[in-house]
Amino acid sequence: MSETKISPDATAYLRAHTWMAAVGMAAAMGVLWVMDSPHIWTGAVGGLAAIALRGFYARKEELAAIWTLTSTALVGPTGHSVPLASISGVKSMGSYVQVITTDGQKYLIKYQADPAATIAAIERARL
Length: 127
Fold this sequence. Notes:
Keywords: Membrane, Transmembrane, Transmembrane helix. This protein is an alpha+beta fold.
């Protein structure tokens, strides 16, 4: 088996941040409502601004995180190698793929356009 690059997807990144912004806006408005603030709408502005700023600054780094799947290991963007024989499970969480090892370590492969295809590739390599 040759190496397979597992890259994050810009559309999945944007979609994840859109959901985070919606939740952040609702949560901030909820907190202000509980505090009986007359300016509940500012929670929506604050929540949106916080996630938009985070998304803007983290985008370059997050989209550069490329994993490499070889015939013997899954190598992370920092060079950390996870032997395929030590992987006990792989599951999806939204656009993320979580890899769990036999010793309980967990790794996230973030912003996948097709998490099921990523899982299938890892499972095929484990065989």
